[in-house]
């Protein structure tokens, strides 16, 4: 059946919640596994003041006992510390009287690039705060929480996932193919922009500073690498079970992500087939592998056993301190779009989100394909598949 999760909560509401269903029973899990990832999400050069207010910590409220999953749904809660300043504006109970603060905080000016206007038209909201509070990158907090649980599962079956930034504001990192997975992880973690090229890192920081000075924002490209996935995970039989398709959907489901590619990606359109496809080799120790990895670890919607390489394109954050023009939905008059507290660049943080949504899809694919009621049996089946592929 796989695993699934649902998130709930508004940006300035009392808390964010996710409920995870389908994890094997008997898997080790503690709050620190999740809090480590939540802290990583809040780092990164170019973040705004919200990161100074919120220090995200998770509370596991069900599905785990004495450090092990029970097989029942797991509920994770992250409290919003800023809620105390928004209790009147975002309160649950009906308002008895309209106060000045509520009037001041009502949003009727749709911001270009946001969900504001489309969401208002969809649900009939005259106050677009009802839209923007949910269509907020704040929701990725609990997506990372869910992803961190998936990362824990993956790590216990020999699968590792890491993300790094390859471009911000047109400043590109040079490919560093000679680095090991461990080196990429360490260098990305040490960089304020999660870039493993020190020269490009300086240029990216300068670009973020320039954007902030101009009241503007910039986007970029993140790359996620996963190693250790067994061969043949996914499907060539059904379109909706192709694992690369699920990863593509996961990447573009992240706020502000507008494109995705695997391996050499769009460069494949400019090369002949002899420079795109990966030749197959075999040896006694590893079994089947590829001479190259231009297809990013996938053929026919299934894993090849090579590292999975997927990149996502994040557009500039649309909340600008030199706001674009829009229309007030009450008066229909043109206005400069309203400003909510925002970042000038969130690409480094988005890399952590991308890392976790990829981890979720990989974990889900494994749970779907292998017996997963009990964690010990789950691990045994995955290892048996690896051995089968090696000896085939």
TrEMBL record:
Function: This reaction introduces a second double bond into the aromatic ring system.
Catalyses which reaction(s): 5-O-(1-carboxyvinyl)-3-phosphoshikimate = chorismate + phosphate
Matching Gene3D superfamilies: Chorismate synthase AroC (3.60.150.10)
EC number(s) given by UniProt: 4.2.3.5
NCBIfam families reported in the protein's UniProt record: aroC, PRK05382.1
Tree of life domain: Bacteria
Binding of NADP(+), residues: 41, 47
Name of the gene: aroC
Subunit structure: Homotetramer.
Co-factor binding comment: Reduced FMN (FMNH(2)).
Descriptive protein name: Chorismate synthase
Listed InterPro entries: Chorismate_synth (IPR000453), Chorismate_synth_AroC_sf (IPR035904), Chorismate_synthase_CS (IPR020541)
Transmembrane segments: none
GO molecular function: chorismate synthase activity; FMN binding
SUPFAM superfamilies attached to this UniProt entry: Chorismate synthase, AroC (SSF103263)
GO annotation (BP), single: chorismate biosynthetic process
Binding locations of FMN: 134-136, 255-256, 300, 315-319, 341
Gene Ontology terms: cellular component: cytosol
Protein family per UniProt: Belongs to the chorismate synthase family.
Cofactor(s) of this protein: FMNH2
Keyword Phosphoprotein: no
Enzyme class: lyase
Keywords: Amino-acid biosynthesis, Aromatic amino acid biosynthesis, FAD, Flavoprotein, FMN, Lyase, NADP
